[in-house]
Amino acid sequence: MLKVYFIGGTQNIHGDRKRFIQQLTIACQSGITMFQYREKDHSALSGTERLALGKQVREITRKAAIPLIVDDDLKLAQAIDADGIHVGQSDTPVQEVVKKASGMIVGLSVHNRDELIASGDLTGVDYLGVGPIFATNSKENAKQPIGLDGLFQMNQATLKPIVAIGGIHEDNVGEVLKHSVSGVAVISDIMESDDIPLTVRHLKGEA
Ligand code: 3NM
């Protein structure tokens, strides 16, 4: 499920909901293995608009049998019957999420070893999002890139499945895939692609 993990919200496509739905629909038919609805940062939708778009996202992902994760909003995840929930270090504590999200996939973002240790008991956490590997423009207040060395160190520090994230594109994915990750998570590489099927093949290391 983590192999090509597409993430996005309207803030990643200049608020253009129609184009967001178009790109998601194509991605779902082009070999992505998971989608995370991440409506975040200053221009994110909220309230009924967020719920309405979330329902549409659920419909598209369900039709294509793509697991749907919601970023840091358990109520929304439950309301749209998502398959999972993802939280970061400054979101709801992951142990609380694990307790409340029974039966759901749970993902956690970690930047480095110290954060991993500080995250405490990770029982019930299904995978770790590790990054940013490279510089990214898709996340407000993104941390310093950890590079491939940082990814290597995180690999040594945990047995949890790792999905690498941050600044991953067709031209650098090959290096990332050498680091025994379960997959790569991307926003811009797919959201801004004019040829999503080819982009996804690149991200799988197939093209
Ligand atoms: N989380 P792009 S980096 C959502 O480091 C997100 O935890 C990150 O977008 C982290 O593929 C990031 O366009 C943005 O670089 C990834």
From TrEMBL:
InterPro entries referenced in this protein's UniProt entry, alphabetically: Aldolase_TIM, ThiamineP_synth_sf, ThiamineP_synth_TenI, TMP_synthase
Residue ranges of domain Thiamine phosphate synthase/TenI in the record: 4-190
Pfam families: TMP-TENI
Residue intervals passing through the bilayer: none
Cofactor(s) this protein cannot do without: Mg(2+)
CC terms in the record's Gene Ontology section: cytoplasm
Binding site for 2-[(2R,5Z)-2-carboxy-4-methylthiazol-5(2H)-ylidene]ethyl phosphate: T136, N137, S138, G167, I187, S188
EC number: 2.5.1.3
Highest taxon of the lineage: Bacteria
Biological process (GO), any one: thiamine biosynthetic process
Keywords carried by this UniProt record: Magnesium, Metal-binding, Plasmid, Thiamine biosynthesis, Transferase
Binding site for Mg(2+): D72, D91
UniProt binding sites for 4-amino-2-methyl-5-(diphosphooxymethyl)pyrimidine: Q36, Y37, R38, E39, K40, D71, S109, K139
UniProt pathway: Cofactor biosynthesis; thiamine diphosphate biosynthesis; thiamine phosphate from 4-amino-2-methyl-5-diphosphomethylpyrimidine and 4-methyl-5-(2-phosphoethyl)-thiazole: step 1/1
SUPFAM superfamilies: Thiamin phosphate synthase (SSF51391)
The record's free-text note on cofactor binding: Binds 1 Mg(2+) ion per subunit.
Function, in words: Condenses 4-methyl-5-(beta-hydroxyethyl)thiazole monophosphate (THZ-P) and 2-methyl-4-amino-5-hydroxymethyl pyrimidine pyrophosphate (HMP-PP) to form thiamine monophosphate (TMP).
NCBIfam families linked to this entry: thiE (TIGR00693)
Stored HAMAP family: TMP_synthase
Family: Belongs to the thiamine-phosphate synthase family.
Name this protein carries in UniProt: Thiamine-phosphate synthase
Native species: Nicoliella spurrieriana
